[in-house]
Design brief:
The protein is of the alpha+beta class. A hairpin with a 3-residue loop joins strand 3 and strand 4.
């Protein structure tokens, strides 16, 4: 099942423009939050998000948005490099049972459809446009 998501990954677009297109036209949390300013969100993200979803170390989940039937969006910022987070999601998240269904990687952003543990969704990562050396992580999840 494909989530009603269209992703346009173009270097000429701002991170906010890309985010608006990838999550059904409505922008998720502020993508300009830096790690030093991030206030941790609750440690559980609701019934629409897998409780065992792994996040890389040095990551702060700062926003959780329940969009009902459209899923739950969890936004985070990490001081871990973009390339290390990409490796983590392709290895550690897959090892945790979240199989990649399809994806695309570019120089400064990547995204993939995933499925596992009774959920499906999409993760996106991008180098932060406002926080040097930091990486924005967003995970959209819907229960099967």
């Amino acid at each position: 099942m494909v989530i009603g998501t269209v992703l346009v990954a173009c270097g000429a677009e701002s991170g906010q423009d890309t985010a608006q297109k990838q999550i059904g036209g409505a922008a998720p949390a502020d993508l300009s939050t830096c790690a030093d300013d991030a206030v941790p969100a609750a440690t559980t993200y609701g019934d629409g998000f897998p409780s065992d979803w792994p996040f890389p170390s040095n990551t702060v989940v700062h926003h959780v948005e329940d969009r009902g039937a459209d899923g739950t969006i969890v936004s985070a910022i990490s001081t871990t490099s973009f390339s290390a987070i990409l490796e983590f999601l392709n290895r550690d998240a897959v090892d945790a049972g979240f199989k990649i269904e399809d994806g695309e990687t570019e120089d400064h952003d990547a995204e993939a459809e995933w499925k596992g543990d009774g959920f499906h969704g999409r993760w996106t990562i991008r180098e932060s446009a406002t926080c040097a050396g930091e990486t924005v992580i967003q995970v959209l999840s819907t229960a099967d």
